[in-house]
Amino acid sequence: MDCRVVVEAAVPVYDVETVDEAIRIAISKTGEMLNPDLKYVEINMGSRTSPGGEELPPAFIAADEALVALELEMTVFNVEQEEHASRIARKEIGQRLENIPLKVLSVERVDDDSVETDGEGDTRAETGASDDDALVDFDDLVDDR
């Protein structure tokens, strides 16, 4: 089974004045930490809400420092259950994003129709990844149960 996992990250950013600047820097900083090993992870702005349900910007700024909510999405291949997929995604992303808190937001099964096989027998999700993108063989990872 293949699963699409969404992980929320709280990325600290320093010396910023606006929310837009904080978001741009956080996305850039996160991309640098993930590349080239995890270039298939999609980075999106996170969403925040107040306790009353009001939409808030994805960044909180105080004293020219910001904490930015980002959502990181990746497809995990050949797992036995959704819990296993979430552990793998959290471990792979967490190893590269040191000292950044992570929380698994969702795990969804990927339909077999949305997964294609390249000419060499490897599978990849149709997420706009090119055929040259490297895939991680998650079966070779150490089980962290």
Structure description:
The protein starts with a strand and ends in a 20-residue tail after the last strand. The strands form three sheets. Strands 1, 2, 5, 6 and 7 form a five-stranded antiparallel β-sheet that branches. It has a single domain (1-108), classed as Alpha-Beta Plaits. Residues 116-145 have low confidence and may be disordered. It has helices at 19-34, 82-96, and strands spanning 3-14, 42-45, 48-49, 55-56, 59-62, 65-76, 102-109, 115-117, 123-125. The protein has two helices and nine strands, in the order βαβββββαβββ. The radius of gyration is 16 Å and the shape is globular. The longest helix has 16 residues, at 19-34. It is an alpha+beta fold and 145 residues long. A hairpin with a 5-residue loop joins strand 8 (115-117) and strand 9 (123-125). Residues 111-145 are annotated as: Disordered. Belongs to the UPF0212 family. InterPro entries: UPF0212 (IPR007564). This is UPF0212 protein C454_14270. Pfam families: DUF555 (PF04475).
